[in-house]
Amino acid sequence: MDSLSKKIVARKMVYGIVVVTFACAFLLFPGCGREKATAPEHPAVEVTAVTVTNKDTPVSFEFVGQTESSRQVEIRARVDGFLDKRAYEEGTLVKAGAVMFQMEKSPFEATLQQAKGELSMQEARLAQAKANLARIKPLAAKNAISKKDLDDALSNEQVAQAAVFAAQGKVQEAELNLGYTTIKSPVTGISSRAKKQEGSYVSSGPDGLLTYVAQLDPIWVNFSISENEILRLHDQEEKGLVKFPRDKDLFIEVILANGFVFPHKGRVNFAEPNLNIETGTFLVRAAVKNPKGALRPGQFVRVRILGAVRPRAVVIPQRAVMQGAKGHFVWVVNKEGKAEFRSVEVGDWFGDDWFITNGLKVGEQVAVDGAIKLAPGAPVKIVQAGAQGGGSKVQAEAKPAPSSPESKTTKTPAKK
Q1: Is the pLDDT of residue 390 over 70?
Q2: What is the mean pLDDT of residues 74-94?
Q3: Do 61-69+214-309 and 46-59+311-411 have the same topology in CATH?
Q4: pLDDT category, 44, cuts 50, 70, 90?
Q5: Whether pLDDT at 22 is above 80
Q6: 206, 77 contact by CB (below 8 A)
Q7: Residue 151 dihedral angles phi and psi, to the nearest 5°
Q8: What is the mean pLDDT of residues 178-205?
Q9: Which fold has domain 46-59+311-411?
């Protein structure tokens, strides 16, 4: 093949390669030369939401307390003698005036008889002295006897009268001592175990304690409030964040160890004005009706103080509030239906909710369930609670508190 033919063949081969290359490029990149397709938007994140409202919200505060008898009485012997019998069953309820112990009576009955005999003798002497004075007075008026005889008769009558008074006192004392042999309960309450048994010798001294009777209705509940808590509440009251009833007329609920609320509420009737320097707390006491004696002295309970109100409070569910490096935050759904990061300042817990002191405005929508999947600017679809994954668009309204403050409790959140 000559030189010209070789050049023609080579040129055809180059053309073929170029054509094949363009064809492959056309097949591999069919969109080349066309308009660039628009990328699809991310699907909206489904969340439940609450609308921010403000409302006067009843709040409560919890403290640890301990029950105490409102009147615990020592049952003691008031005279010396032997104990004949115990007339009550230990640990049972005794009525006021019920006999609890009976001491031996015979020595005191004998003493009473002796005192009565002495009284009779002195009364006879008084009668004789009065008769003698009655005879002497007419004679003295006629100067038939000396003035000394009259003075002696008057003195004898007065001495006899004094002796009668003394004898009467002895009789009363003997009667009292005889009555003290029957030992009764001065109050209605629960009895303790007997510290002396039948046949024991008891005295009216320090060793004369026989048992206790504790009044149960009403029963007292004592609890302590720390100095820091008092200052915090006072500061909130000054700032208008919390309002207490007039004259601080506060009621309490008692929560038992099993979590149940005692059916009868109590009322605060005493607050210690002085700080206990050993514990740094103020003692507070409430009286609680206890007609069936269900509460016993010494029980540990939780005390929930009622009656305070947070005016125009903003409350949202705790699960809507998250915490990051810069503090607490929530996701707000703006008017464009986009997620908006919002820092907030939180206050106390309120049951399953949280008081928000700063960062939210009335009417804003706050994401609750599903908020953890949000990012700034993400599209949001508000659905009914429990309907994530497909449901009708329903906006839930935040309800800061029920009409009664009894179902929720304010707690101070732990610092993280």
Answers
A1: no
A2: 94
A3: no
A4: confident
A5: no
A6: no
A7: -60, -40
A8: 94
A9: 2.40.420
Q: Which CATH class is domain 61-69+214-309?
A: mainly beta
CA neighbor of 65 nearest in space, from 248, 287, 215: 287
Look at residue 35 in the predicted model and tell me its pLDDT. 46
Q: How far apart are the first and last CA of the chain?
A: 92
CB 180 within 8 A of CB 172: no
Predicted local distance difference test score (pLDDT) of residue 11: 53
Residue 52: the pLDDT is 93
**∠ at Cα 109 (106, 111), nearest 5°?**
110
Q: In this structure, which topology does domain 75-211 adopt according to CATH?
A: OB fold (Dihydrolipoamide Acetyltransferase, E2P) (2.40.50)
* Top-confidence residue, 410 or 136: 136
Unique residue bearing structure tokens 């607050």: 271
The closest alpha carbon to 67, from 301, 306, 304, belongs to 301
- What is the tens place of the pLDDT at every residue in 90-135? 999 999 999 999 999 999 999 999 999 999 999 999 999 999 888 8
Domain extents in the chain: 1-29, 46-59+311-411, 61-69+214-309, 75-211
